[in-house]
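Morning F.,

Quick status update on the modeling queue. The single chain you submitted on Monday has been processed. Sequence for confirmation:
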Amino acid sequence: MTSLGTGITEAIVHDYGTSGFLSRLSDPFWFQALGAVMGMDWHSSGITTSVMGALKRGLSPKADELGLYICGGRGRFSRNTPNELRLLGERRGFDADALVRTSRLTARIDNNAIADGFQIYLHNFVVTSSGEWAVVQQGLNDKTGMARRYHWHSANVRDFVAEPHTGIVGEHQARRQQFYQIAELAKILRHQRIGRRHRAERHACV
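Structure tokens below.
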């Protein structure tokens, strides 16, 4: 599984670059298909842990060559993501503090802000040598025993609170729409506050 996932990744990076690989990794349907090709049942929630674990094991020795770095993992390994990013920043010259903030923010949004009852237990932060990043993380609902996977890609993030995901995979998606409706309302209110502040500043200058 590790060898196959590594070979597929190397082929994609060779033909489409690291950005092309991140765009695919952040597509939940492509990710599910990758897991099936690598030997997992297509409908298994364990596909996320297995695929990301295999990719991290296989790609870590070739990370500098490919310009592709996978941090984090499941459970205690997910909590080690900030340390991995800081070490990577020291070694490769990344803005580690910014990447750590982004990692924590994506985890908090999916764990707390969406409020869908799924607690994040797996968090993988994938970053390229150019600083482009993707997040694949998964939460578990203790009451139902069901899992939900969240995908992010920096190229698609315009606002961290207004439809920032490239995909959310799992049953019962109604709350996702509710979250985005709230996010859109929050954006409107922000614009209104900014408009009122600008008008007040112009009035004060008169």
